[in-house]
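Could you help me review a protein record that somebody else here produced? My question to you is simply how this chain folds and whether the tokens agree. Thanks in advance; the entry in question is below:
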Amino acid sequence: MTKVAVVTGSTSGIGLAIAEAFAELGHTVVVNSFSDTEADHAVAKAIAEKTGAKAVYRKADMSRPDECRDLIAWTAKEIGAVDILVNNAGIQHVAPVDEFPVEQWDRIIAINLTSAFHTTAAALPHMKAAGWGRIVNIASAHGLRASPNKSAYVAAKHGVVGLTKTVALETARLGITCNAVCPGFVLTPLVETQIGDRAKELGLDRETTIRDVILEKQPSKKFASVDEIAAATLYLVSDGAASVTGTTISVDGGWTAQ
């Protein structure tokens, strides 16, 4: 049976791979970003043309609680259901705690953590009414481990894991599951920016920066792929994962095994 899936932050990277994977199964997909450009709408159109599934774009700034909740309300009203919610939107900033810009802290917490609270809170009544729902939060290895200079990101992703567990407990008897996928380093636009910044800072070439700096903690010494994150997400929304709730799945090349 086809479902309606909302994927936040899904015009590129991990979110796009997840949206495409859902559409390939025939699910209706709501693609999201904050920018509302022609390119954003073209992403949804391309997904629909490629898969034959329905894919629509909806602008919502995940730093704004009202827009987070409106994304869900609009989907329920215009498409008729909110069966699957993937909270994927995220940003990053790197700096020591005592030098961390307050506005960057607030923005990271808002987009990486608080948005998931608002979208989940708005989606749960629809899932409860249907007697079925799947929530997947894209957390991070940094939701399970810490790294220096990433205080806001680590705090937000730890919060996402905690939120995941709480929602799972509250919905355990309602046909709804809530889980988190915890990627290690995945080669996304966000990580590409980090590679460039670190290479410039340290005076290293790209390959050395990737091997010795970016992937220092990832034993596999290779990036996870966006398709691997999408595959983990598909499993968590499948019937085979009906009893999997409140847990994390690490896709991190062994990082958190250490």
Remarks:
- The helical segments are 13-24, 38-51, 65-78, 102-130, 151-170, 189-202, 206-214, 226-237.
- Residues 133 and 225 are 26 Å apart (CA to CA).
